[in-house]
Predict the structure.
Amino acid sequence: MKKALFLAIVALMMASGCNNQNKKTAQVAETEPVAEQTTGIYDITVKDMDGSDVSLANYKGKVLLIVNVASKCGLTPQYEGLEALYRKYNDQGFEILAFPCNQFLGQEPGTNEEIQSFCSLTYNVTFPLFDKIDVNGENESPLYTYLKEQAPFKGYPEGTEEFAAMLDEIHQKTETGFDQGDAIRWNFGKFLISKDGKTILRFEPMVAPTELEEEIQRLLKE
């Protein structure tokens, strides 16, 4: 993605509500969060948009792409690329699990019903969306605690330095702490998981869905 596009995306994100950030709810906990004890991703249970429990054991044998999503973000058009991947590879054993999150400048404020409607009407999304969660902080989902432990933050992609610096600046100004450690940096962070759940690859938000295609193909063949 070219520099001009990165700058435009970040400008849109900053305009979307930086001044309205609730510092208290976004603050990373100063103490270690209490998380469920898990031995693997298939021991984790999440909730669907209707509030029903869904065991990730249901996805054993599938290549999974887990994404934290938002409807009012400069990166929201990534839904289009995600849906394209889903339609191309779903019948080969590929699944996308999307988790709405409102922790980044309040860019996912709607109800589950509103989120589902937006995704369906705007991007014709057919992959499953789950209950809204936190991906960082004291109330973060055990799923994201596990993902971050297994695939720590290793830096932003080469060539995205200006975009990365702007994201970090947003977190510093809003005092979220999300620019530190293994925190999820923004909407549309991605975790690609092998069929046996043992390989977990992390991709930062600015990595477009199309850039994951080679890795998806490789994992599907394993």
